[in-house]
Amino acid sequence: MRYRYLRHRWPIRVMHWINVVALSILLMSGLQIFNAHPTLNWGKSSYNGREPVLQMYASETAEGRTTGTTEIFGRKFNTTGFLGASKDSDGDWVARGFPSWLTIPSNQYLAMGRRWHFLFAWLLVINGLAYVIYSFLSRHFTQDLAPTRTDWRNIGSSLWDHVRFRHPVGEAAKHYNVLQKITYLTLIFGILPMTVLMGLAMSPRADSVLAGWVDIVGGRQSARCLHFLGAALIVAFVLVHVFEVIISGLWNNLRSMLSGAYEVDAPPGEAPVTPTRGQEVS
Amino acid sequence: MSGPRDSRRRFLTRLLTGASAMALAGCDAITDSRWGAKTLRLGESANRGVQGSLTSSTALAQEFTEADLSPTFRSNGTSSPNDSEYQRLAADNFRDWRLKIDGLVEAPSELSLEQLRSLKSRTQITRHDCVEGWSAIGKWRGAYLSEVLALVRPLPAARFVVFHCADPMDDQGTRYYESVGLEEARHPQTILAYELNDQALPVANGAPVRVRIERQLGYKMAKYLMRLELVEDFHTIGGGNGGYWEDQGYEWYAGI
I need a labelling partner for A73 at 20 to 30 A (CA). Which of A190, B23, B174, B232 fits? Predict the structure, then answer.
């Protein structure tokens, strides 16, 4: 016997999809901004006599072909067509860090990239603050996200289940598992605020608030590296998240984030429970 | 049961693929529309409002040590103004160069490089942050803009200092210009710099004088200064947005 219950309350669903929009636009407008100077240096300035951590550039072969190169810690990779050099929407080769289909706007337009980025950064920050306040008040954090003592004890078996792509069913599927909890909490209280803060660290006015605070992470250009790393970690999270959503029941998961209803197997011999959160079996 | 669910799934996949392609095209359409560009500006207006009210207007930008100096200070934008009058002044070591200061002031003046050098000066090692993302650290010496303003005595109506520059930006004779509010102009680190790294300011970095506005991005720090004009508003100057890059869509407030 299967039954549906209310897995995600409406504020969580709304805030989740605002995040999807805001993070997508922030990523793509961020890549547009990165393209204006597709080089990352560690330190206070970009010109400190040290080699860049990462750089992308275009060059021409003797035969006149355009190639794109990505250099990470001095190691060169041929990334022609994707990074360093790619075709624009007219099919012409252009020198640019990330390709036009990954940036907002699609052509090189730093001024507008910044406008998109800042507007949606505000959306992300306001949405994030609303989420944290709501989750404390509604006990979403304590009830659903804080790992329990049992969680910590079973972390090994949860890891082993994940490696084998085995997902809980029935009543166990109604709760986040411990790896999921740790990942969400790391993202909410670690990676997302760190990335926003490192973005602010690049603002010369914000730097003046407490002169020298940016040196805690090694300087403004280091902050730029960490902002980029934060974005990469968020992308990595989204890839894993979407993968898990697909293999653990795409439609069921998606429905629960749209209408709230999630379907599980009822324990044998028990009558189906009506889909309200208050009547969850605890 | 599985029939309608399958078609629902197919519909959803198609919806997602179509929607993402349309969303990207949509973003470009929004960017290119007048209302879109204006709406997108809201984020930057919020930056200005929030940073302006939450951070101290007198806080100093971070200063560095000689050990942090960039080996060479990067030249960006114009590296040698394509202008015969400027080149003539440069050939003569700017002996005939005069900084004109006029507009809403009691005492319009012209200052030679010598006169500017005789004013109280400030030396600071600061980080120059370009809107493109890079930073360079240089040692600047120059006259306090606040002192220069005190000499010409701005009228009560004056709200902005407009920097008029020698470098032509296109074939139509558009020259680089910039503007800041009086508060930022009177900030103790806002100087009219005539030295970079203990040498006379090189042509590549804005000789004979460029302005340093250390809590904003590089494009605010106009090079090749020829004239300072005090105005009540800048909407009749250039494209009306307060600066050359502002007229190309960049923000007037460049604190972020």
Answer: A190
* pLDDT for A274: 53
Decide if B189 contacts B60 (C-beta within 8 A).
Answer: yes
Tally of structural domains, chain B: 2
The pLDDT averaged over each successive group of 10 residues in chain A (282 residues) is: 93 98 98 98 94 96 93 96 92 94 94 97 98 97 94 92 87 91 97 98 95 95 98 98 94 96 82 50 36
CA distance B164 to B176: 7
Length of chain B: 256
Q: Nearest CA of chain B to the CA of A154: how many Å? A: 35
ipTM: 0.91
The CATH number for B230's domain is: 3.90.420.10
C-alpha–C-alpha distance, residues A255 and A251, integer Å: 6
Residue B124 sits in the same domain as residue B237: yes
Alpha helices in B57-167 (DSSP H): 84-91, 113-118, 145-152
Same domain? For B24 and B112 the reply is: no
Query: Domain check: are B126 and B33 in the same one?
Result: no
The residues with which A71 forms a beta bridge, in sequence order, are A55, A76
Q: In which band, very low, low, confident or very high, does the pLDDT at B25 lie, cut at 50, 70 and 90? A: confident
Q: What residues of chain A lie within 8 A of the CB of B39, using their CB?
A: 119
Dmax (CA) for chain B in angstroms is 89
Amino acid at A85: A
Class of domain A2-38+101-279: mainly alpha
Matching residue, tokens 């002169």: A211
Does B134 contact A251 at a Cβ distance shorter than 8 Å?
Answer: no
Residue of chain B whose alpha carbon sits nearest to that of A251: B9
Residue B49, both tokens? 């409002």
| Closest among A67, A82, A69, A72 to A40, alpha carbons compared | A72
Selection from B53, B47, B72, B203 nearest residue B128 by Cα? B72
C-beta of residue B104 within 8 angstroms of C-beta of residue B155: yes
Q: Do residue B23 and residue B84 come from a single domain?
A: no
C-alpha torsion angle, residues B78, B167, B226, B204 (rounded to 10): 20
Chain A, residues 3-42, CB within 8 A of chain B, namely: 25, 28, 33-34, 36-37, 39, 41
* Integer angstrom CA distances of residue B191 from A196, B117, B119: 31, 12, 11
Q: Please give the mean pLDDT across all residues of chain B.
A: 94
Is B11's pLDDT higher than 90? Answer: no
Per-residue pLDDT reduced to its tens digit, B197-208:
999 999 999 999
Other Cβ atoms within 10 Å of A108 Cβ, number: 16
* For residues B245-256, average pLDDT: 96
Selecting from A49, A104, A121 the residue whose C-beta is nearest the C-beta of B27 gives A104
Per DSSP, what are the bridge partners of residue B173?
none
Structure pTM? 0.92
Q: Are residues B120 and B17 in the same domain?
A: no
d(CA A220, CA A218): 7
